[in-house]
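Task 17 of the worksheet. Students: predict the tertiary structure of the chain below and write it out as structure tokens. Keep your answer in the requested format; marks are given for formatting as well as content.
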Amino acid sequence: MTINDYQRGKLEIALGKLNEVQELITFLASDTADGEFGAQMDMLNAEIMSNTDDLRKAKDDSELVGYSEYRKRFLEGDR
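Model answer:
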């Protein structure tokens, strides 16, 4: 899977927004007196962290695939 530069920029923005959401959820979980709500926020935060990590991995993998295709096409040429 390759991601073009326009999509990569949008993906970076989405990752940044997910980080902001994580910060907000962490604040809500730490600022509440309700233990059940705090536990739910912690579970939600863990799920968002997992999804964020998966998105980062997909972005990194796409960069490797993109470089591999670039290398085959332009650097190795018709040897």
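Marker's comment: Residues 48 and 54 are 10 Å apart (CA to CA). The first helix runs from residue 5 to 31.
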